[in-house]
Write a structure and sequence with these properties.
13 helices, flat, TatC, about 290 residues, mainly alpha, transport, transmembrane, protein transport
Length: about 290
């Protein structure tokens, strides 16, 4: 692409952005990896900027969606206590612009997440073997819907948690909720749910890597499920049991599914004789049996 300034042609070239080509065996030097990383980061940054700009035109609708759980909770509290005074406020001159920018950026990142994940995948794939590429694709393909399912569950249970928290507001006292603080609270809440739904998949990956065997998952199942409910009680900011169960029950089901899959994989490894190198060594097996006893 070329431009003309005061009659002088100026040629703009983006060739320096192009990633270096890997060798026939996929190997690259350190500087080529850095150039590849620079290219991927620039593409990701430009993608987020474009997504944020597009989302900016829908910021009013997106803001209504984000604050819909608070409105539901406020209506439920007013139905029980007509004298309750709840109000959302925007503090500061720049606060409305900050809110619109945060909402647009969050929507832009979510909308462009497939492109961002592809750039991450394209950067790491040259260093992976064929088997590792397959498992990475399976992980990314299953992690994305699990994370989004966790976020959706967090968004769904948010009003019930807010009803409990805001229900402590006494008559005669106005509860003023800053919109930027509520947005941060909502993002943390949904992020906890999204990440929690990925924990069983992390357990399964550890099993695939040979770090965590299925028999240990079965041995400590009751403790893990108990810890899941404790995590659900701690991770949810509200004190109602519904939010805790909404997080702990799906995690428990996903953990049991991961345990079943881990048993299937371990049996397959046992048939191939690759489940544990220690088990194939007589001396090390005897030492391990002695420790277990």
């Amino acid at each position: 692409m070329s431009l003309t300034v005061r009659g002088r042609p100026i040629r703009l070239s983006f060739a320096w952005l192009k990633p270096p080509k890997a060798g026939p065996d996929g190997s690259m030097s350190l500087f080529e990896h850095i150039a590849e990383l620079r290219y991927r980061l620039i593409i990701m940054a430009l993608t987020i900027v474009v997504g944020t700009v597009v989302a900016w035109f829908f910021r009013s609708y997106l803001t209504e969606v984000i604050f819909y759980p608070y409105q539901l909770a406020a209506e439920a509290i007013r139905a029980k206590n007509p004298g309750a005074s709840l109000q959302m406020v925007n503090q500061g001159v720049a606060s409305p612009f900050t809110l619109a920018l945060k909402v647009s950026a969050m929507a832009g990142i979510l909308a462009t997440s497939p492109i961002l994940l592809y750039q991450l995948w394209a950067f790491i794939v040259p260093g992976l073997l064929a088997k590792e590429k397959k498992w990475t694709l399976i992980f990314l393909g299953s992690a994305t819907p699990l994370f989004l399912a966790g976020v959706a569950v967090g968004y769904y249970v948010m009003p019930k948690g807010l009803v409990v928290l805001l229900g402590f507001t006494e008559n005669g006292i106005t509860n003023l909720q800053d919109v930027n603080q509520f947005l941060s609270f909502l993002m943390r809440f949904m992020l906890v749910f999204g990440v929690a739904f990925l924990i069983p998949e992390v357990v399964l990956i550890l099993n695939i890597m040979g770090i965590l065997k299925a028999k240990y998952l079965s041995k400590y199942r009751s403790l893990i499920i108990f810890g899941t409910f404790v995590f659900g009680a701690v991770a949810t900011p509200s004190t109602d049991p519904f939010s805790m169960l909404a997080l702990a029950l799906p995690m428990t089901v996903l953990f049991i599914v991961a345990e079943v899959i881990a048993h299937v994989l371990d049996r397959r490894k046992a048939r191939r004789g690759t489940i544990d190198p220690v088990a194939r060594d007589r001396a090390l097996r005897g030492l391990t049996d002695g420790e277990d006893a």
